[in-house]
Amino acid sequence: MDSKVIKKGIIVGFALFSTFFGAGNLIFPPGIGAASGTQWVAGALGLFCSGILLPVIAVIAVNNSGGDVKNILNPVTPWFYNFFYLIMVLILATTSTMPKLAATTHEMGVRALTDKVPMPVTILIFFLIIFFISKDASSVVDKIGKYLTPVLLVALLIIVAAAVITPIGAPVPTGIEKPFVGALITGYNTGDLTLGLMCASLFFNALRDGEIKKSQINAGIYITALVAIIGLTIIYVGVLYLGATGNEYVTTDMSMATMLIILVEQLLGKIGSGVLAIIVMLACITTGVGIATIGAEFVEEFTKGRIKYTTWLVVVCILGGCLGILGVNRIVGYASFMFAVIYPICIVLTFLGLIKKFLPNDGPFKGGVLMAFLFSLMETLVNAGLNISIFKIILSKMPLAEYGFSWLVPSIVGMIIGAFIIKTKVPDVIE
Asked: Residue 37 sits in a domain of what CATH number?
């Protein structure tokens, strides 16, 4: 294989890794490990499926569908692409993910080093950095992959190596009943599957910049995917194992940010605070840059240039800064309900994207997405405490409902019925 393909694939793979590895990826694994205890392997497998494998597969699915996410979204209905991105960009990214990244930077980064810097100052500096790196969309992937990710990866490997070589304790039984399912659902809150669908084009464009031949792009994409999977798996499992060995030092009522800070300090002492601060800031910046870039590109396209790329960047930074002051736990609290509805839809879209070229029509997209939405919405409302008896009755009859997957079988049925009812097929977008 051409060395240029390998080199470019690794650089873009680093960028994909660091884009996925944001605030959620940093704070969720230790909590899963602490909750799983001796069953931490099952917890790691659950997080691997929803937090690593699915997001990377989403990127591959977009590639297999012609390299444009529109080819996955348009078959649902012609307006679904704009609707999906409006939800992702205007609601989830702007009001959840970006504020969470900024808040995490302060709570787990700056505050671990000093308590003399006010939170608003941290958030202001964070968004100034986001704006500076993101303002030139064409250079974003190279900036992340060449410069930011290597430093992030080295810092992460220090913690992982220490957690494995000199563990702070031994995993203990926690009485958890379904560690795999619990970790799988917790992985939803990383939001990385939606990020994979949204940002796929950013990485495809980086591979199409002229450095490698068009015929070699697919090879570059698979190298990119492999690098991201390996990197994420090593880090996830290592940090999760740290949580599993640290039950002596943490409690379930701790915030996720506090839990990780305590565990790293027990592992590496005061040096750990500095290493963690570097990790937090870099992880949050790289993810924030990816989200801000793809969101601004969409808004400029959607408004036909009436709202410029840089204008939307400014909006994201201002609104994200205002909401970031709420703190990580409050942001995760309201965002988890939104992800619980959207994630099943994204899983269906990812699966169908992988097999799109074998489908006879757009029916599976229409039926599968509709059922995923209806049942995930019902399940989310019931889990939120709404006493809607008809929803409870319907959900109780669904296979796998006790595991949080009441939407799965209805979605499959919807795909099959849709394939027989619908005869039309939306033409693919030509790149």
From this structure: 1.20.1740.10
Residue 343 domain-assigned (yes or no): no
Cα 197 to Cα 360: distance, rounded to the nearest angstrom: 23
Tokens of 115: 């308590």
- State if pTM tops 0.85: no
332 & 371 share domain = no
Can you read off the two tokens belonging to residue 421?
């009812």
Same domain, 229 and 325: yes
Task: Encode the chain (431 residues) as per-residue pLDDT tens digits.
Answer: 677 788 888 888 888 888 888 655 777 899 899 999 999 999 999 999 988 999 999 999 988 888 888 999 999 998 898 888 888 777 777 877 788 888 888 887 888 788 889 999 999 999 999 999 998 887 887 788 778 888 888 888 999 999 999 999 999 998 888 899 889 888 876 778 887 888 788 788 777 766 677 777 788 889 999 999 999 999 999 999 999 999 889 887 787 778 888 999 999 988 888 888 888 888 888 888 888 888 888 889 889 999 999 999 999 899 888 888 877 666 666 667 777 888 899 999 999 999 998 999 999 999 999 999 999 999 888 887 888 889 989 998 998 888 778 999 999 999 999 999 998 888 887 65
374 and 319 assigned to the same domain: no
Is the dihedral angle over the CA atoms 110, 116, 119, 121 positive or is it negative?
negative
Q: Read off the tokens for 204.
A: 């495809």
Residue numbers of the domain that contains 387: 359-431
